[in-house]
């Protein structure tokens, strides 16, 4: 594999890892939006 291909693979893996990393806060905020405001802290700690 050439150097450019290896660099592209590395960039893709880092991008995919960051997207997975940001999925959890996104789902937490989405679920908190569906609950009453008094239960938001409990949902975010889940």
Q: What structural keywords apply?
A:
single chain; 46 residues; mainly alpha; 0% strand
Walk me through the structure.
- Helices cover 80% and strands 0% of the residues.
- It has 46 residues and is mainly α.
- It is rod-shaped, with a radius of gyration of 17 Å.
- It starts with a helix and ends with a helix.
- The model has no long low-confidence stretch (mean pLDDT 93).
In a few lines, what is going on in this structure?
By secondary structure, the protein is mainly alpha-helical. It has helices at residues 3-33, 40-45.
Q: Helical segment tally? A: 2
Largest sheet: none
N-to-C CA distance? 43 Å
Tell how many strands the DSSP assignment holds: 0
- Which segments are poorly predicted (pLDDT under 50) over 5 or more consecutive residues? none
- Specify the overall morphology: rod-shaped
Mean pLDDT over the residues: 93
């Amino acid at each position: 594999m050439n150097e450019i291909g290896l660099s592209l693979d590395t960039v893709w893996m880092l991008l995919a890892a960051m997207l997975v990393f940001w999925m959890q806060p996104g789902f937490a905020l989405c679920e908190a939006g569906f609950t009453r405001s008094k239960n938001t802290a409990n949902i975010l700690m889940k």
